[in-house]
Design goal:
Strands 1, 10, 11, 12, 13, 14, 15, 16 and 17 form a nine-stranded mixed beta sheet that branches. An eight-stranded parallel beta sheet has the order 2-9-8-7-6-5-4-3. The chain is an alpha/beta fold. It is elongated, with a radius of gyration of 22 Å. Strand 3, helix 3 and strand 4 form a beta-alpha-beta unit. The chain folds into two domains: 111 residues, D-serine dehydratase-like domain (Lyase, Ornithine Decarboxylase, Chain A, domain 1, Beta Barrel); 224 residues, Alanine racemase (TIM Barrel, Alpha-Beta Barrel).
Amino acid sequence: MQVTATSPVGLPKSQVDTPALVVDLDTMDRNIARMAATMRQAGVGWRPHTKGIKVPAIAHRLLAAGAFGVTCAKLSEAEVMAAAGIRDILIANEVIGEAKVRRLAHLCAQADVVVAVDGEVGITQLDAAAAAAGTRPRVVVEVDTGMGRCGVAPGDAAVALARRVADAPHLRFAGVMGWEGHTCAVPDQNQKRAAIKDSVEKLTRSADLCREAGLPVSIVSCGGTGTYQTTAFIRGVTEVQAGGGIFGDMRYLNHYRLDHECALTVVTTVVSRPNPHLIVTDGGFKAMSSSHGDPRPLGLPLEQVEAVLLSAEHGRVRLTEPNTSLQIGDRLEFIVGYSDSTVLLHDVLYATRDGIVQAAWEISGRGKLQ
């Protein structure tokens, strides 16, 4: 974002107009350092997913901390990261359709892009587009390790598809990827670790079978924020995609039992106090999502918060007992419920340290759905 005379950079966070999405740099940097240290300890590469981050400046911060590349969910997200000078990019998704494969093939002239396939159609389309563009994208076979979404079956089916990629003259077979997302919310931690191991070993075994078939495998990619502390240490994994944990949020805390600090908040203004049991702010579901996790208001006793209710432009905090500590015009800050469903609502992310705005980052990955 271009800094202007009206930019809040250098001003206290309290002077940013609301509702505003804010990240605390010290907290985020501690989360980054923690994740990077885990990858180093495990001896795996870190390719953080940017689908919920969407800010190239943060992606560069991750590269400086030890990541070697990034992961994107969509081609348009990869185009944003490539335009920001990031070279090693995995699109952990199938790219289908003439318009998209043409763009992808030409993007490979600007960045070293890896893309997933899980069927013959994707291979045929990618190969034809790469031939026309004069590029050779790296390709990984997506393996369904239990998520029940995209991906070919593990084992022989994965090997057969890998062989088909290797035979395509304009593609480079690079390996396999998967996502053990169905294990994230297993409540018992011992059972969760066992479920992650069972899932990921379907992927690593598929990689081993590809090697036995004479297919070189350099990439075995998996792992998200909800699983990385186990996934990174499973034999055969070469890289982990966890990224959202740099922010931390209520979903990671409550559903994934991940004890990362929460760095991402939405700052709102109290606009009404109809009664001592109700606080109304100017931030509703257009400013902070309750999808996959309710935002948590800060500065109020947790036991007094009966519910957080979001309508389009208003956030209501219903209290179990009277509390008049907040009045109209005061600020109320919320820990984000789920970063993936909140960052995309904003144009700007304000980065603060010690309560002072250090940067106003354009969320340039916002709206990149194609």
